[in-house]
């Protein structure tokens, strides 16, 4: 049932979108509208798992939106909206505090005091943050441009360094106790508790790859391609092309086989209330 409060909130969101974009909606704004239409009142868990891909968090403390093009971070409230940061690459809200980063600093914005503090300052760029077990996960470059994954307390104190390796990062998400790395046709799950690494896919080649971590399943889309003499991408056949999933339950039981759920690949998709939607927010029939 749609209450008066819901109608007022939706009206404020619409006004906010018009103020931000005029007649053109950004991807983030369209996603926020879609979540509101689906009756989502708290998507925090999904956002914490997918901060790299998810630009909107709705929580009991407010609604937060990051622009795709300008990277500005906003808080939306019943009485309007305000800009939290001019530039935020990834962010998440937890217990009334918004954690976000740009370049080599991680910041904490307090929604009650409206003050921002530098929580973590590192020598080279931060690449990703996430929330795990009420701690901050942070992937970054170090001084020699190796990738480092670390764990910090909410006050910025470093708790643990998990690993350091050379290479490029690709996409990241986390589900349960696993941080998952996706780069072309390689998918690696790293166990935060025992440090074990498990390859879900380990193959050569270029791929238009995307993944989303749901509460119960990890979804991965792969579309292999090559580059021709004119630097254009040409799709090629591969046994990995399509949309795949693996359940958290299987991962915890040491079963690492992926299940194909569609022959079609998707450059981007969303997981809302355990259902998958394409970029146009149409339900995927799998």
Write up what this structure looks like.
- With 286 residues, this protein is mainly β.
- It contains four helices and 25 strands.
- A hairpin with a 2-residue loop joins strand 13 and strand 14.
- Helix 1 packs antiparallel against helix 2.
Key features of this structure:
286 residues; mainly beta; 4 helices; globular; disordered N terminus
Secondary structure topology:
Blueprint lengths: L3 H18 L5 H11 L6 H6 L6 E4 L2 E5 L6 E5 L2 E6 L5 E4 L2 E6 L2 E6 L5 E6 L4 E7 L2 E7 L5 E6 L5 E8 L5 E5 L2 E6 L2 E6 L5 E6 L3 E2 L2 E4 L3 E6 L1 E4 L5 E3 L6 E6 H5 L6 E4 L7 E3 L2 E3 L9
Antiparallel strand pairs: 1-2, 2-3, 3-4, 5-6, 6-7, 7-8, 9-10, 10-11, 11-12, 13-14, 14-15, 15-16, 17-20, 18-19, 19-22, 20-21, 22-23, 24-25
Helix pairs in contact: 1-2
The geometry reads as globular
Task: Give the C-alpha Rg.
Answer: 19 Å
How many E-type strands? 25
Read across the widest sheet, the strand sequence of neighbours is 1-2-3-4
Mean pLDDT value: 90
In which range does the helix fraction lie?
10-25%
| Low-pLDDT ranges | 1-12
Helix- and strand-based class? mainly beta
Q: What is the straight-line distance between the termini? A: 29 Å
Give the SSE order as H and E letters: HHHEEEEEEEEEEEEEEEEEEEEEEHEEE
Please work out how many helical segments DSSP would assign: 4
Largest sheet: 4 strands, antiparallel
Beta-strand content bin:
35-45%
